[in-house]
Design a protein that fits this description.
With 401 residues, the protein is an alpha/beta fold. The protein has a domain of 171 residues: Acetylglutamate kinase-like (Carbamate kinase). 35% of the residues lie in helices and 25% in strands. Strands 3-6-2-1-9-11-12-10 form an eight-stranded mixed sheet, sandwiched between helices. Strand 11 and strand 12 form a beta hairpin. The longest helix is centred in the first third of the chain and has 25 residues. Bound molecules: adenosine-5'-diphosphate, aspartic acid and magnesium ion. Adenosine-5'-diphosphate (ADP) binds next to loops.
């Protein structure tokens, strides 16, 4: 007997037909003699619809009330799925974050899990029940409902797999595995049988939303094997694990992120302490800076460009403008119509020419690069958003065709 945590995303439980398909999957796993814990996301576009409802009432409603609202979607899903499983004649119980004591910090909208208890779930499993748990939500120290950030149900599933010492954590979604690029954007993308935690973490952090990046981080830390597979088709998926197959893979995939903005601070004083001042002001407001580029100074002045999330852009601009005199820039140049395109692969470390191939692909498409950032296992470029789809296809073809 194995203990399996299965997670189904929004499109997998979108309507009654999907719900019964999922219920069938779950009960098949239970009938095979396994203990089954299931984490569900909100149905279809429910979370987006709830966000829209909030906007209609008050676009500036507090983050606390947003979390109170958004957590409803997952609670609907588990109750409905429990009813579908009851209809199929199996014992089942649905539970929310309170009932499984899933604790988080107090960052509404982006809460991080601090602990969860296996007690209630264990008791229900011992009663031979299938246990359904809400994804995405937690409880803060102040006993408030929090949410884990968009796509966070994957992280709920891994957290429960850790707490329950599960044998496997399966992430069921609307594609049948992790591909070398988003298969909706690149039709000839290839499915990976296996991928390392490190490569998957980079891909997820750089925009491949097939897994929430923190779920990969947690799976790596606690050695949980993750499997990404389709809830619609019965075919093998992709295994995310410490060491992927022996054969050397240089590039694991291409990712794109359209949720960013670039802010250039033009005409800064060319003297020590300027970068420190800027980043200290932003950090004080909890604004994360991603890519950073500093130009060579021209006499007394220099420019620094940064990227932040599009969501944080207005606040970042406000903070910088408020401190304009102290920071001493001439003006800000802000662009929200940019995108980040990245290649990821643990194998690029010892393989020369990877950056050249990526830049050649962009050159052949006449796509201009605004910023470049690299690490040992990734290369990221910032380009115009309207060229991003084309860039992803061109780069993918360069490495995988
Ligand atoms: P769920 O609702 O099941 O959590 P998501 O929409 O969050 O599903 O994630 C699945 C989507 O991720 C796919 O539909 C696909 O378009 C997208 N995606 C992006 N990059 C990749 C990739 N490299 N491999 C597979 N899917 C990807
Ligand atoms: N329902 C949440 C979202 O849409 C969480 C998730 O699906 O993982 O972001
Ligand atoms: Mg998701």
């Amino acid at each position: 007997m194995s203990l399996i945590v299965m997670k189904f995303g929004g499109s997998s439980v979108a309507d009654a037909e999907c719900m019964f398909r999922v219920a069938q999957r779950i009960t098949d796993c239970y009938k095979a003699g396994n203990e089954v814990v299931v984490v569900l996301s909100a149905q279809g576009d429910t979370t987006d619809e709830l966000i829209e409802k909030a906007r209609e009432i008050n676009p500036n409603g507090s983050k606390r009330e947003m979390d109170m609202l958004l957590s409803c979607g997952e609670q609907m899903s588990v109750a409905l799925c429990a009813m579908a499983i009851q209809k199929l004649g199996f014992p089942v119980v649905s539970l929310n974050a309170w009932q499984v004591n899933l604790r988080t910090d107090s960052r509404y909208g982006n809460a991080h899990i601090t602990k969860t208890s296996a007690k209630r779930i264990r008791e229900e499993l011992d009663r031979q029940r299938i246990v359904l748990v809400t994804g995405f939500q937690g409880i803060s120290r102040e006993e408030d409902i929090t949410t884990l950030g968009r796509g966070g149900s994957d992280t709920s599933a891994v957290a429960l797999a850790v707490a329950l010492k599960a044998d496997l954590c399966q992430i069921y979604t609307d594609v049948d595995g992790v591909y070398t690029a988003d298969p909706r954007l690149v039709p000839n993308a290839k499915k990976l049988q296996e991928i390392t935690y490190d490569d998957m973490l980079e891909l997820a952090s750089l925009g491949a939303k097939v897994l929430h990046n923190r779920s990969v981080q947690m799976a790596k830390r606690y050695h949980i094997d993750l499997e990404v597979l389709s809830s619609f088709k019965n075919v093998p998926g992709t295994i995310v694990k410490e060491v992927a197959k022996m054969e050397k893979v240089v590039i694991s995939g291409v990712a794109m992120d359209q949720s960013i903005a670039r802010i250039a601070l033009v005409g800064l004083n060319n003297e020590p302490g300027v970068a420190y001042q800027i980043f200290a002001k932003l950090a004080k407001k909890n604004i994360d800076v991603d890519v950073i580029l500093q130009s060579i100074g021209r006499g007394d002045s220099k420019d620094i460009s940064i990227t932040v999330t599009r969501e944080a852009c207005d606040e970042a601009v406000r903070v910088l403008e408020e401190n304009r005199e102290e920071l001493g820039f001439e003006y800000l140049n802000v662009r929200k119509d940019v995108a980040k395109v990245s290649i990821v692969g643990g194998g690029m470390l010892n393989t020369p020419g990877i950056a050249a191939s990526m830049f050649q692909a962009l050159y052949e498409e006449h796509i201009n690069i605004h910023m470049i950032s690299t690490s040992e296992i990734k290369i990221t470029v910032l380009i115009d958003e309207d060229k991003a789809d084309r860039a992803v296809r061109a780069i993918h073809n360069k490495f995988f065709d």
